[in-house]
């Protein structure tokens, strides 16, 4: 009976550098270290689980799915430490129902996503998308009638006030912004601690702010909640930044509004269909700044996720409470 560390060489190099892999081995004791790309299909994975019968699995993107009947195959399995983010492709809901403990990178990556949100906001204010093309490909220079804007003292609205949004609010404090947020489920105490005004509605959030940062979780209630009317209500020279989930926004309406209102700047890191289709209307628009869903931890900061995960491995083996373990509500909200 041995625990499992199931990561590719690339995942090992990016999540577990500088002694972290050795620390993982030391924590879980006798362990099978396997590159999941070497497994030949699900049958070999099942055989490995049955043979090793681990109590703990350290997993990453390429780790095969844990079977729903895992208790029959590996009855000792109690905890899966998933180094990346959403566990939906790794853990079936039934496993959570049966009591399997699971953690992922959770809040450990919040600061790097907040950093990307700031980048995208500043890119909008300074019209980076326009100038990148103009100077690289058109050999251009600034026309006198073309202006850029500053983030200082702008009104900033945030849709959703979870951990990433909270990190973003703290990150922009030097800019002296008036910040409001629409997030009905978040208690007043968090708004007060952050110095954020509670927006009474999405309508006021969009119409009363110069910058809108979309960071709401994707749920059945929020799917498509950012409508054409909301987007059209944004004031002149407003910026809309989506770093949350693409499907929260009516993307057809967003493309239409961006096309009709060149004064509005848009920055998108997430899309309802990914990879972004080659014929997407967002491609080629001079007021739309695009990133290919890389707002999460940069390759040099994935070690933060590993540190978070290894601390949870230590806690589990010591019989202590895990940090941010999944429950069914969290699982259902994950994408």
Topology:
Elements: E1 3-6, H1 9-15, H2 20-28, E2 31-34, H3 42-52, E3 56-59, H4 70-73, E4 79-82, H5 93-97, E5 101-103, H6 110-125, H7 128-136, E6 155-159, H8 163-171, E7 178-182, H9 188-194, E8 197-198, H10 202-207, E9 211-214, H11 228-232, E10 239-242, H12 251-260, E11 265-268, E12 288-290, H13 302-317, H14 328-333
Helix pairs in contact: 2-13, 6-8
How many separate domains make up the residues?
2
| Widest beta sheet: strand line-up | 8-7-6-9-10-11-12
Radius of gyration: 22 Å
Distance between the termini: 33 Å
Shape from CA axes?
A: elongated
* Percent in strands: 5-15%
Brief descriptors of the model:
single chain; 335 residues; alpha/beta; Rossmann fold; 2 domains; seven-stranded parallel beta sheet; five-stranded parallel beta sheet; 12 strands; 36% helix
């Amino acid at each position: 009976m041995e625990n499992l560390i199931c990561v590719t060489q690339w995942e090992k190099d990016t999540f577990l550098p500088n002694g972290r892999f050795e620390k993982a081995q030391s924590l879980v004791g006798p362990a099978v270290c396997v590159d999941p790309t070497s497994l030949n299909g699900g049958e070999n994975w099942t055989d490995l689980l049955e043979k090793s019968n681990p109590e703990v699995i350290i997993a990453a993107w390429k780790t095969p799915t844990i079977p729903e009947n895992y208790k029959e195959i590996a009855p000792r399995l109690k905890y899966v430490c998933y180094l990346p983010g959403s566990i939906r492709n790794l853990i079936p809901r039934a496993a959570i129902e049966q009591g399997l403990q699971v953690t992922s990178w959770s809040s450990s990556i919040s600061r790097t996503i907040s950093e990307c949100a700031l980048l995208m906001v500043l890119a909008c204010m300074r019209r980076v998308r326009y100038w990148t093309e103009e100077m690289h490909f058109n050999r251009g220079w600034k026309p006198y009638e073309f202006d850029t804007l500053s983030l200082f003292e702008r009104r900033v609205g945030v849709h959703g006030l979870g951990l990433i949004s909270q990190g973003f609010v703290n990150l922009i404090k030097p800019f002296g912004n008036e910040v409001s947020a629409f997030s009905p489920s978040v208690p007043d105490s968090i708004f007060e601690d952050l110095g954020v005004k509670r927006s009474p509605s999405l309508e006021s959030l969009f119409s009363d702010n110069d910058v809108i940062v979309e960071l709401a979780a994707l749920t059945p209630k929020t799917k498509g909640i950012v409508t054409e009317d909301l987007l059209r209500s944004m004031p002149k020279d407003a910026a809309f930044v989506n770093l949350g989930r693409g499907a929260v926004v009516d993307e057809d309406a967003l493309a239409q509004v961006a096309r009709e209102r060149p004064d509005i700047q848009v920055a998108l890191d997430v899309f309802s269909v990914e990879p972004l289709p080659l014929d997407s209307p967002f491609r080629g628009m001079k007021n739309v700044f695009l990133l290919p869903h890389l707002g999460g931890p940069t390759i040099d900061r994935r070690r933060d996720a590993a540190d978070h995960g290894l601390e949870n491995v230590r806690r589990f083996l010591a019989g202590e409470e895990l940090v941010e373990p999944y429950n069914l509500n969290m699982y259902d909200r994950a994408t």
